[in-house]
Amino acid sequence: MNQIExxxxxxxxxxxxxxxRLGISQEDAVxxxxxxxxxxxxxxxxxxxxxxxxxxxxxxxxxxxxxxFIDVLISKMNLDCTSEVxxxxxxxxxxxxxxxxxxxIGRRGETLDAAQYLVNxxxxxxxxxxxxxxxxxxxxxxxxxxxxxxxxxxxxxxxxALKYRRNMAFEPMNPYERRIIxxxxxxxxxxxxxxxxxxxxxxxxxxxx
Length: 209
Fold this sequence. Notes:
The chain is an alpha+beta fold. It folds into three domains: 3-55, Defensin A-like (2-Layer Sandwich); 62-140, GMP Synthetase, Chain A, domain 3; 145-208, Ribosomal Protein S8, Chain: A, domain 1 (2-Layer Sandwich), CATH 3.30.1370. It is built from six helices and nine strands; from the N terminus they run βαββαββααβαβαββ. The chain has helices at residues 11-22, 62-76, 101-105, 110-123, 142-164, 175-185; strands at residues 3-8, 29-35, 49-55, 81-87, 91-98, 134-139, 168-169, 191-196, 203-208. The longest helix has 23 residues, at 142-164. The protein is elongated. The N and C termini lie far apart (70 Å).
């Protein structure tokens, strides 16, 4: 039973009765007053109050929602994978593992990025402000390995820019990867970095100072 209509002498009495019959607290209820009720004149012609009380739909936890979405996606893609989820105050972290991780990662992580974008939309639908929860999706430890590769590449390209005294351009990267490059070189006083172009062809240029 998710909804009940109850009549009583007062609204408060009707609400209390409905909550008891539904077995929920007022915080978990949606209360609609259908009739305020009235005492009538000298106790004659009075009407009972009437309320409709429903069980409030609880928003699924971000971690559970994220795992649910990814498990369905894995099934739809026919991948031999499983997912594990962890959650803290800052983010939900999903890790996909198994023989089919290559299919989840895709070329240069494009499938992984697309899946992460979609799961973020799904989890945060209807969430606002502090309720928003960032979801980070990884598969086969791809993101950590990719970050290590990008850090090495950033330092190598910076050395070449200084050695040849000319601008060095990276291949187009997604925003996540560009942030790693910028972050790696932000404390390097010998070079500057900037992003140029339009998505999805936006790329980083390293210039010697």
